[in-house]
Design goal:
The protein is α/β, with parallel strands linked by helices and 272 residues long. Helices cover 36% and strands 18% of the residues. Strand 1, helix 1 (11-22) and strand 2 form a beta-alpha-beta unit.
Length: 272
């Protein structure tokens, strides 16, 4: 079986590739600026803003499964329109599609968000992700739309790098005590995505860890794991800043977890 990872040079994309090649799948991946270094992977440069290029790459690879793990942040042409182009090309080639979305589609107005909750984004990025979800579900009814949260793992995530810099005094800033998410380990997330991809599942799924933590409390756990002094981490309140977006966004993944063999560990466990 051949699989294609859109956004393979990113943090999640690299783990998706690692697991796909370990499972013996023929693996192709796309990159925006530079390819990854995993042996045996066929790399394709891709700007998802170019419809003909998107269609061409998917036609050339002819994969059984396409996983769209790309992220253009608030760039609508990449995050929203790019997802539409990938979906249209997947339909044309008859590929299975897994689209990775985000908890940014929610405002935090509810205590918890399960898979039945409709998006109510507060930021341009959240709005782009919400639009992408709607388009994918309309164009590819059999697709998987998988919302996830803050991705952690192997010390290489952006949040882990930030914690090291703050603890070491090489970066200014603070970790917010009122910014709550449900962190997930990148290994668990990728395994769950492949499990869904290779099943007949369709619709919206939540793939987040079982622990709801503030970015500050998560930072303390990361610091302790790495032998750093968590007491040196500066704390602050996001509510006291002008940063947009929801504060307390907790993805409820229990319904999805019941369908999976892959266990979505909480941060207190995988950072123990």
């Amino acid at each position: 079986m051949t699989v294609l990872i859109i956004g393979g040079s990113g943090f999640l994309g690299a783990e998706l590739i690692r697991q796909a090649t370990a499972a013996g799948h023929g693996t192709a991946a796309t990159f925006a600026s530079r390819p990854g270094k995993v042996p045996g992977v066929v790399w394709h440069p891709l700007d998802v803003r170019e419809p003909e290029r998107v269609a061409g790459v998917i036609a050339d690879v002819a994969p059984s499964v396409v996983v769209n793990a790309s992220s253009g942040q608030a760039d609508w042409a990449v995050t929203a329109d790019g997802a539409v182009r990938v979906a249209l090309a997947a339909v044309e080639q008859g590929c299975r599609l897994v689209h990775v979305s985000s908890d940014a589609v929610f405002s935090g107005a509810r205590a918890r968000y399960d898979e039945r909750c409709l998006p109510d984004p507060l930021t341009p990025y959240g709005a782009a992700k919400a639009a992408a979800e709607t388009a994918v579900r309309h164009l590819v009814p059999g697709a998987v739309v998988a919302r996830t949260s803050l991705i952690i793992g192997y010390g290489r995530s952006g949040h882990e790098r930030t914690v090291r810099a703050l603890a070491g005094g090489t970066r200014d800033g603070a970790l917010f005590t009122d910014d709550i998410r449900c962190p997930v380990h990148v290994e668990d997330l990728a395994a769950a995505l492949w499990e869904l991809a290779l099943s007949d599942a369709a619709g919206v799924f939540h793939l987040a860890g079982s622990d709801a933590l503030s970015r500050y409390d998560l930072g303390v756990l990361i610091a302790r794991r790495e032998g750093l002094d968590g007491a040196r981490l500066p704390a602050g309140r996001r509510a006291d800043t002008s940063l947009p977006g929801g504060l307390d966004i907790r993805l409820d993944s229990r319904a999805t977890q019941e369908r999976l063999r892959t266990r979505l560990r909480g941060a207190r466990e995988f950072l123990r």
